[in-house]
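User: structure tokens for this one?
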Amino acid sequence: MLIRRCLAKINIFLEVVGKRPDGYHDIESVFCEIPLDDILSAEAIPGPDIVLECSDPSLPCGDGNLVVKAARALRERCGVAAGMRFCLEKHIPAGAGLGGGSSDAAGALLLANEAWNLRLPRADLVSIAAGIGADVPFFLHGGTCLCRGIGEIVTPLQVGLPASLRLGLALPPIHSDTAAAYRGLRLPAAGDVRGADDYVAALEQGDADAIEAASFNRFEETVFAAIPALGRIRGRLMDDLCRPVRLSGSGSGLWFSLRGDESVPEQTVRWLQGEGVRLEVVGLNPNRKAGHFA
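Assistant:
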């Protein structure tokens, strides 16, 4: 039995550049792994079946699940006859913009590659991942990356968020539908498109104020308007913390930075609990490569 932690991500910068002829959207985004994870285990089994068991009964475990889709794509690429049994312990909330399903799919590719003794290099796995989902290639790189195209063009960065920062994650019991968020999006005019260069430069400087000032998410205007309860939670956090609170992806997960030994005010914690919001605070580990968390 092989086991892997499948980490979540946040978008610490996200611009939607425009819509493509095929209906997809081009983005420019900085992805960063966070230490919220699903646990995926795998073992090769005789016969052709790809079997998935999941701790969350609300999630489909058939062909529509990205774990199953990833394993089938790898098997078809390599002509494998054996099957695979996966067990998924789910902790990353769905519909929160944290990439849980994509991370699980990347984990399935890595585990199946090992369990079937295929020894495919990462470049080949990335090629397969791009056909599974736009965010899946990022999770084969990890850390902090600049992602372009529909998300599949991944450039690892040598810098990440400063080790002096911690991140707060507010995870409401709200599902934000990505397709609906894109349909409601007001695309920027050509002259108003924000590139990620300023944000990457702020990361390189390591200045927390510059990093906060350069953070951005194009979805925020329309998602908060479409989901007023989410906008209300964000507004309360901004009032109590006196700093930016950003959406990850198309939501509904929210993130904010904390400095040094700073903590979330107790009255804010109690209010979030009353709203059913899950609160996580995670810290950076400077001994790991840029963007990786403790």
